[in-house]
């Protein structure tokens, strides 16, 4: 037992109208290391139990004004003293009916004199030890409650601090995003003016002075014009990405099947005269922004057409399937595919896995698609093999 409780002496209330009887009880119990408190009447005993905490009450039955039975009943009726153990110790009223009356009044034991000292000490010792154990448990309960309260305060403060950091970090990221968007937008616009001049003067040279230039000079001039054209496409791609990042999401029920069909019809116009096998399965509706999702399909279906256009019979398939409680949409083609070792470059801006001389493009389309899907709370990934086509999957 904790040292604090070993040194603590429990109080025992001795109630008897005869001081000699009280002194005799103290003598019998002196070896139990107790603090004895005397009461010469039932009223005095009631007052003491309301002011002090006792391990046990040893009480005589026959007392003037208020006997032990009445005193015990009043103690039982008070919430503060309801569970206080009482042992009646009396010289008279030894009959069984009085013992039953004592138990009915709330006593835990009824002892008639002459009392065997060993038995009395044994019974008092039990209640003393129970009291000490209860006090120790209460002490540890309070300590534990204090620790819980302290830890709760610490966790609350940590949560508030973390929340504040998240708010501050979110504001920083939003500010950074705004700066990046503004930078991309302004750079793209600032680049257009000198690019237009280079392109315009290059065309003037080609139209008015090409005859004065030798073959090598004309070739260099053509390369300048082609470079200007490519730079214009890159600027347009940067602006498209910037607009996608800045455009607010307006979610509503979207027919994914209708969007896929309409998008294919638009992309198909670039390959007029080329036979293409196109299949769309029944696609579940999605809660999404129709304008942005149309852009996703435009990039994925457009890529599928581009990279399968050299096949004798290009095949494009658009479908969906359930997976772990969500719908996975996909666009599959039978085109040139790619090596999965380089899949981490797919969605990076200006990263391309195929030679630009063979397949036109800016390397921004998949970055735009990824940005749109992530803003919807989804993800996008791909599976492919060289010369065996590619499949792009996404969730919303």
From TrEMBL:
CDD domains: HisKA (cd00082). Residues 11-128 form the Response regulatory domain. It catalyses: ATP + protein L-histidine = ADP + protein N-phospho-L-histidine. The modification 4-aspartylphosphate is found at residue 60. GO terms for biological process: osmosensory signaling via phosphorelay pathway. Pfam families: HATPase_c, HisKA, Response_reg. Keywords: Kinase, Phosphoprotein, Transferase. Gene3D superfamilies: 1.10.287.130, 3.40.50.2300, Histidine kinase-like ATPase, C-terminal domain. GO terms for molecular function: phosphorelay response regulator activity; phosphorelay sensor kinase activity; protein kinase activator activity. Residues 186-396 form the Histidine kinase domain. Signal peptide: none annotated. The keyword Phosphoprotein applies. Its EC number is 2.7.13.3. PANTHER family: BACTERIOPHYTOCHROME, TWO-COMPONENT HISTIDINE KINASE. This is histidine kinase. The lineage of its organism: Bacteria, Pseudomonadati, Thermodesulfobacteriota, Desulfuromonadia, Geobacterales.
């Amino acid at each position: 037992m904790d040292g604090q409780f070993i040194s603590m002496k429990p109080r025992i209330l001795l109630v008897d109208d005869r001081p000699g009887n009280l002194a005799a009880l103290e003598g019998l119990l002196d070896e139990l290391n107790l603090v004895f408190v005397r009461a010469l009447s039932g009223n005095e005993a009631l007052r003491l139990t309301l002011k002090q905490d006792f391990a046990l009450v040893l009480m005589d039955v026959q007392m003037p004004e208020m006997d032990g039975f009445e005193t015990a009943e009043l103690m039982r009726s008070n919430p503060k003293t309801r569970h206080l153990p009482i042992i009646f110790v009396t010289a008279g009223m030894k009959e069984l009916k009085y013992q039953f009356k004592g138990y009915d009044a709330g006593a835990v034991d009824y002892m008639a004199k002459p009392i065997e000292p060993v038995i009395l000490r044994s019974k008092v010792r039990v209640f003393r030890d129970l009291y000490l154990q209860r006090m120790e448990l209460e002490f540890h309960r309070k300590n534990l409650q204090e620790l819980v309260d302290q830890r709760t305060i610490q966790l609350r403060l940590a949560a508030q601090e973390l929340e504040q950091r998240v708010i501050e970090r979110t504001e920083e990221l939003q500010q950074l995003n705004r700066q990046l968007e503004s930078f991309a937008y302004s750079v793209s616009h600032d680049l257009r003016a000198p690019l237009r001049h280079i392109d315009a003067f290059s065309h003037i040279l080609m139209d008015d002075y090409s005859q004065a230039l030798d073959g090598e000079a004309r070739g260099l001039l053509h390369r300048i014009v082609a470079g200007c054209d490519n730079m214009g496409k890159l600027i347009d791609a940067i602006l498209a990405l910037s607009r996608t990042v800045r455009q607010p999401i307006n979610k509503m029920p979207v027919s994914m099947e209708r969007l896929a069909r309409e998008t294919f019809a638009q992309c198909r116009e670039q390959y007029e005269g080329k036979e293409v096998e196109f299949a769309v399965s029944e696609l579940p509706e999605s809660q999404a922004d129709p304008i942005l999702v149309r852009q996703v399909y435009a990039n994925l279906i457009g890529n599928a057409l581009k990279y399968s256009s050299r096949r004798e019979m290009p095949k494009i398939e658009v479908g969906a399937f359930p997976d772990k409680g969500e719908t996975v949409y996909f666009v599959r083609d039978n085109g040139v595919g790619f090596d999965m070792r380089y899949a981490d470059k797919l969605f990076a801006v200006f990263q391309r896995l195929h030679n630009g001389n063979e397949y036109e493009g800016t390397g921004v389309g998949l970055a735009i698609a990824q940005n749109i899907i992530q803003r919807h709370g989804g993800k996008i990934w791909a599976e492919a093999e060289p010369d065996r086509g590619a499949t792009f999957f996404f969730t919303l």
